[in-house]
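does this look right to u?? magnesium ion version
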Amino acid sequence: MASAKGKALTIDGLTVDFGGFKAVDGFSMIVGDGELRVLLGANGAGKTTLMDLISGKTRSTDGSVHLYDLNITNQEEYRIARAGVGRKFQIPSIFRELTVEQNLIVAGTREPSVFRNLTFGINREGRRRLEDVVELTRLGDVLDRPAGELSHGETQWLELGMLVSQGARVILLDEPTAGMTQVETQKTAELINRMKGDHTILVVEHDMAFVREIASTITVMHLGKLLAEGSMAEIESNQAVRDAYLGSGGIH
Amino acid sequence: MHAFVADRRRLEFLAYALFIAGVLAMPLFIDAFWLNRIAKYLVYGMLGLAIALSWGYAGILNLGQGLFFGFGAYMAAMSLKLQSYTSLQQGSDKPIPDFMLWNAEPNAPTDLCCINEGSFLWLPFQAQWFGMAMAILAPTLIAYLVGSAIFRLRISGVYVAIITLALVLLTRLLIIDAQPVTNGFNGLTDLGWLTIGGFEFDPYMTQTYYLVAAGMVVVLLATRLLVATRAGLILQSTRDDPNRARYLGYNVAAYQVFFFTVSAAIAGFAGMLYVIAAEFASPTFMDLTFSISMVVWAAVGGRASLLGACIGAILINTIEASVSESEMLQEGWKLIIGFLFVLVVLFMPRGLAGLVNDMLDRIEAMLKPGAARPPATTKTAAATAAEKPGE
Ligand SMILES: Nc1ncnc2c1ncn2[C@@H]1O[C@H](COP(=O)(O)OP(=O)(O)OP(=O)(O)O)[C@@H](O)[C@H]1O
Ligand SMILES: [Mg+2]
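got this back:
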C-alpha cells in the first residue's frame, strides 16, 4: 500500500445508479503518485463511466473520489479540472478552428478567470512550458495550422499535449490509440511513457500490444466492479479474468 | 509560416485602416441628407459586429439582439424627449411628454411624478446623462441576467435562438401595452437634440456624423482588441468544443455570459447613437424582422470577421436605400437579400470576409508556388496524413 502522501487518486466505493442499472458498482481503487495504471475490461464494463464519474461528467450516487487529499466527488467539471484532473475522450476533442499553438495557449493559461485573461499573449513562464510541450509532442512543424486540419494521430498528440500544458496531475486517457495506425500507436506509447512519472496516468486500452508497452499495474473491471489487480503476468493467469473474458473472446 | 501569419496581420491592419479612413472622409463626398443616412448605417454596422461577436466568436446565435438595441434606444429617447420643446407645452414649466398630457385623466396632476401610474419612471431621465448611461447599463444588466440563466443551464444552439427571439417579442408586446409610459405603437417621437456643454447635436450636422462615426470606430477597435486577448481565444475555444474547455478548467458559462453581455452593451450603445441620429425610438426596433436582419448582415459580411460583419451591414443598407426609390425594386430587393442569405449560409459560411481571405490565399499560392501554405478550406486531414508517410 502506498503511503497517504503517495496516493494521487483514491476511489472508494464509487457507484452510479442509472435508474436501477449500476454501471459502476461499489468500485474502489488507489492509484499512486506518478504511476501509470491501465484499466481493462470488456465492452460495457463501465470504464468510460468510471472516468465520467472521476471527471465530474456524471454524478455518482454513492462513494467518493479524492485527488491527493482533496475531495472532488461530484464537483463541477471545471473545478475538478482546476484541481488537477485532465481528461482525454474516446473521440479526440480539440479546438478545430484555432491553430495548434492557440490550442496549447488556451490549455496552458493556468488562469480560469475571464477578467484576468483580458490581456494579450502569454508570459515567459507560459512560453517556456509551451515549448516543452511542443518538444514532447513533436508538433513544432504544424504550430500555425488550424487544429482541424491535423491527421488523426496528430490530433491525439495535440490533445495529450494540452493535458500536459494544463498542468494536470492526474490524467485520464480513454482509448488513446483507437483508430491509429501501428506507427502512430507506437509513437503514442513513447509519448505516454515520457509523460509517466511527471504525471499520474490512468489509461483505458484494448490494444494488448500497447498495454504491454506501457503498463506496470493493471486493474480489471467487470460489470462495474473490481475484478482483479496486478502485473501483466498476474492478470493473464488470473482465473476470474479468464472466465469474465470468455464471453468476449478473452484477452488477446 | 510565421512570415505568412505576419503578412496576413498586416493586410488585416490595412483593411481596418482603409475602412476607418473611408468612414472619416465621408463628409467630404456626400451631402447632409446622405450623411445622416450613413450615420444610421454605421449604427447598423455596430449591430452587425455585435452579432459577429456573439455568433461568430462565441457560437451564440442571438435572434433577439433588437431587445438590447431597443432598450438602448428607449433609454436615450426618454431623456431626449424630456428635452424636447414638445414636453414643455400647455403652460407647463416642468417637462412632461406630450402624449402623457393628451391621454391624462381630467383631474390628474400635471406633474411627471404622478400624471399617470407609471410616469414617475421618467423622473430620473430629466438628467440627460442618466438616459445616456442607462442606454448602455440597462441592456448590460438585462443581458447579464438573461445570459446567466441561459448559459448556467447549458442551453445552446437553436434553443438560445428561440429563447432570445421569444424574449424580444415579449418585450415588444409589453412596451406596446404600456402605452401611458411608452406611447405604445407610436414610440417616442419629436425628440430634442443631444446637448453636450451647450453644443446641440443637430442630426444633420457633420458634428453629429462624427459623433456616431467615432462611437463606431472605438467600438470596432475595442472589440477587435478584445477578441485578441486570451479571454477572446478561450471564448473561441468554448465555441469549438465547450466540453474540452470545461475539462481544461474553464467555467464555460462565465465566458459566454461575459461576451453575450458585451455584445448586448454594444447593441445598447448603438441604440443610443441611432436615436441621436434618427430622432425617434419605436417598438419596430423589437420587430422580429429587424433582429433577423442583423443576423443576415453579419452572415453576408462574414460572421467570423468583425470588420466583415460591420461592412456587410453598411453595404446591404446602402444598396437597399439606393434601390428603395421604386416600390417594385424594393420588393425585389427583399427577395434578393433572402436569396443571398440562403446562398451564403449554404456555400459561403464565412461570408464576404471569407471570400476575400480565400482570394488572398489564391494570390499567395500563385506568387509563391510550392512555398505557400495550402488554403485552409481545401486541405483535409486525410490529405495531410498522406503527405507524411512513415511519420
Ligand atoms: N447515462 C447512462 N444511462 C444509462 N446507462 C448508461 C449510461 N452511460 C453508460 N451506460 C451503460 O453503462 C454501461 C457501461 O458503459 P461504459 O461506456 O462505461 O463501458 P466501457 O467499459 O467504457 O465500454 P467500451 O469498452 O465499449 O468503451 C453500458 O452498459 C452502458 O450502456
Ligand atoms: Mg468506453
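The mean pLDDT of chain B is 89. idk if thats expected tbh
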